[in-house]
Amino acid sequence: MNNKNITSLILAAGFSSRMGKFKPLLDYEGKSFIQNVAEKVAAVSDKIIIVTGFNSAAIVEHLENRLENKVLLKIDFVFNERFESGMFSSLKKGISNAGNPDWILYHFVDQPLLHEEFYLSFVKEVESGFDLIQPTHKGKKGHPIILGGKIIESIKSADLDKTLKILLEETEFSTKMWECAFPEVLKDFDLPEDLSDGGIKL
Question: N or C: which end of the chain has fewer CB within 10 A?
Fold first, then answer.
């Protein structure tokens, strides 16, 4: 584990309306999206915040029945009662319940393809003097991203009508781009046709 205190923040609060099926519980290689992500980030996380909203009880029950205890002990489930306001409200809710980590690994629930090797390599890129660390592949920006203290505090104090993109544009932050060998940083799942990758079941 990296010697910096890292909390992973996984957003799983939305309706999945464009997909037409509830994304956190979609299957990839015999495990749900949310289980895949939670198990992998556990290898580099001191704590894991899972922000829920729509279908919250189903996520909690699902993970409590499937995750090993060593992973569950790291997880705090945080319900965002304003999840219909959009993703930024869930990000703010999660960060406000994260305590005071040095870094936050900000992760979407629809990126189950990343391997544990990615996370072990990614956290090695953590470096003081930067506010944001973002993976790229062949020059294209990807996710998840790692947020440092200055951005964390800015998100906490920002209005709900902001987005992270707007916040990053409005304020001067120091960003480190990490060109990696993992094309999966560019892949998420928004629409049914995105599920053409093998192993994903509706």
Answer: C
Write down how long the chain is: 202
CATH class, range 6-201: alpha beta
Please tell me the distance from the alpha carbon of residue 21 to that of residue 23, in angstroms, as a whole number: 6
151-197: pLDDT as tens digits: 999 999 999 888 999 999 888 899 999 999 999 999 988 877 777 75
The domain spans of the chain are 6-201
Contact 123, 47 (CB under 8 A): no
- Of the candidates 66, 34, 182, 190, which has an alpha carbon nearest to the alpha carbon of residue 114? 182
Look up the pTM and report it.
Answer: 0.93
